[in-house]
Request: fold
Amino acid sequence: MRDLKRKMRLRYNFQNKESGSISKFRLPSTWMPRPAYSNHLENYLEATLTEIASLPIRNAKSNIKKAEMFALKAIRNDRSLIVKPFDKGRGIAILNRSDYRAEIERQLQSHHYERIPSDITPETVQIVRGTLQDLFHRDEIDEQTFKYLNPQNHKIRTPVIYVLPKIHKAPPANSKFAGRPIISGNGSPTESNPPTPGGLTCDARRGIHVY
Reply:
């Protein structure tokens, strides 16, 4: 309901104002407008809130059988299993966790990866931030863009690898299945710094080794 109030008040307050040039690289605003100078809008919001609060809360009915629900819970609670979608298609695979782990370790032992002694995520954050500061001081990016791209303004996590089973291909030697490796970089220091056609943030990625 808070989001509804915010959106409606923003639309009312800025309905006759030009938006101007708004950078695409900016942190989301959390500013909450004051109540609008419109009794109609505020009365509508209060009436909507009252109507929503008066709605009865009903328990949703399950669309699967009890036996199926029991089976799903058993799979979820079984730590020896892992469920992953197919690399292609809409099916899912139920794998032994030991086989899944063995496939990831097999791929990590290839020449495409290199073991490093420690996590370089904190170092990467400092490299990206320092490069962005240089771009900002050279007036190549504005303050909004700097804040948006600065990894210190986001919740950072270390990227992780996972694999999706490729059931359409024969498993390699010493493995129960073939897996497509995927690096999940959501929340990584360079997530907000993708290579762009204009080369806006390419300098921010220069000198950062990828493993």
